[in-house]
TrEMBL record, chain A:
InterPro entries: CHR_Transporter, Chromate_transpt. GO terms for molecular function: chromate transmembrane transporter activity. This is Putative chromate transport protein. Keywords: Cell membrane, Membrane, Transmembrane, Transmembrane helix. The keyword Membrane applies. Belongs to the chromate ion transporter (CHR) (TC 2.A.51) family. It is found in: Cell membrane. It comes from Atribacter laminatus. It is a multi-pass membrane protein. The gene is srpC_1. Pfam families: Chromate_transp.
From TrEMBL, chain B:
This is Chromate transport protein. The keyword Cell membrane applies. It comes from Atribacter laminatus. It holds the Pfam family Chromate_transp. It is found in: Cell membrane. The chain crosses the membrane at residues 7-28, 73-98, 119-148, 154-172. Belongs to the chromate ion transporter (CHR) (TC 2.A.51) family.
């Protein structure tokens, strides 16, 4: 950590640039961003070691929010306090924000074009497939016990048939997690 | 007034966004399509596709899209910022009480307990999108092929999305 304090002046800029690059060049969000963050912070900039990073990553998943944003904020906060937190989060948000504004503007202007509509129509089944792979990779971890499968199906029925707000499903999930033995 | 509602909607989404990545979509759908009816399901599909095609976290992309559509650039700042607020709050809280979180058994149990919730929420999102976006056998085939290729890691998900879009351009004329 001594090295870090010595170059503290530059640390805000380093944080900003690192997370800007991560935000601009990773697609899909979530865990897709993890290896890039690791390469940028641990290997290239040597801001922390692997243990630190794994530690931060496990904390980043223990509260809500985008994983990339949580990781950025935790890293920034640890290395340069509250200002570091803000700079790291801004760095990771600004590229997505800017590119999305441009993309949305284009969509609002050219969304009526038949070509664009056909593209989106073809992409939608692939989106469903991506969501399915997301579900499967979580389910692979969760469904080691049959109990989880039953709870999941129950939740789905409540959401689908009775139109429960996701809040209740999340609350009940958290509570059952606390109560269960294993 | 729209700014206040954007703020409330996305701070709620931020508080409930467990699981990362596309797990946020069902929450966005609930608030934006069901509760506030700012987007139709078809427009929500466009939002999801665009959020996947552009770089960065999906939650941030969809927040920016919705905010921009409803309230211009300022609306986008409000929605994206308020989505991040719960994260910032939690980080500050955690840095004060780090020992409560690091390796805490209760926190781990809660996170494990949330998996079935996240699975159910994502299944619902996948199901509604499929209901509205898979209308013919070509789409069914495209979905199955995409699933196999992405699941077996034979293709990058974004590349798959682009190829499926191009297939759509040729098929749906």
């Amino acid at each position: 950590m001594d090295v870090l304090i010595k170059r503290k002046k530059g640390i805000l800029w380093i944080l900003f640039v690192s997370f800007f690059r991560i935000g601009a060049f990773t697609w899909g969000g979530g865990y897709a961003m993890v290896p890039l963050i690791q390469r940028e912070l641990v290997q290239k900039k040597e801001l922390m070691n692997d243990d630190d990073f794994i530690n931060i990553l496990s904390i980043a998943q223990s509260f809500p929010g985008a994983i990339a944003i949580n990781t950025a904020g935790l890293v920034g906060n640890r290395l340069a306090g509250f200002r570091g937190l803000l700079v790291a989060i801004l760095g990771s948000v600004i590229p997505s924000f800017t590119i999305m504004i441009l993309a949305a503007t284009l969509l609002f202007h050219y969304g009526d074009l038949v070509l664009v509509q056909r593209f989106f129509r073809g992409a939608t089944p692939a989106i469903v497939a991506l969501i399915a792979t997301g579900i499967f990779s979580i389910a692979k971890k969760a469904f080691k016990q049959r109990f989880d499968l039953i709870i999941s199906s129950g939740f789905f029925i409540f959401l689908f048939l009775f139109d429960f707000h996701p809040f209740w499903i999340i609350l009940i999930g958290a509570l059952t997690g606390l109560v269960r033995k294993s | 007034m729209i700014y206040l509602h954007l703020f409330l909607a996305f701070i709620r989404i931020g508080f409930l966004a467990f699981g990362g990545g596309i797990a946020v979509l069902p929450l966005v759908q609930k608030e934006i399509v069901d509760t506030y009816q700012w987007l139709s399901t078809a427009q929500f599909l466009d939002l999801v596709t665009l959020s996947e095609l552009t770089p960065g976290p999906i939650a941030i992309n969809s927040a920016t899209f919705v905010g921009y559509k409803l309230g211009g650039v300022f609306g986008a700042v409000i929605s994206t910022g308020s989505f991040c607020l719960p994260s910032i709050g939690f980080i500050l809280l955690i840095s004060k009480f780090l020992s409560l979180f690091e390796g805490n058994e209760k926190v781990q149990k809660i996170m494990k307990g949330l998996r079935p919730s996240v699975i159910a929420l994502m299944s619902l999102a996948g199901f509604t999108i499929a209901q509205n976006g898979i209308m013919d056998w070509f789409a069914v085939g495209l979905c199955v092929i995409s699933f196999v290729l992405v699941w077996k890691k034979m293709i990058d998900p974004i590349m798959m999305l682009i190829l499926a879009g191009i297939a759509g351009i040729f098929y749906y004329r």
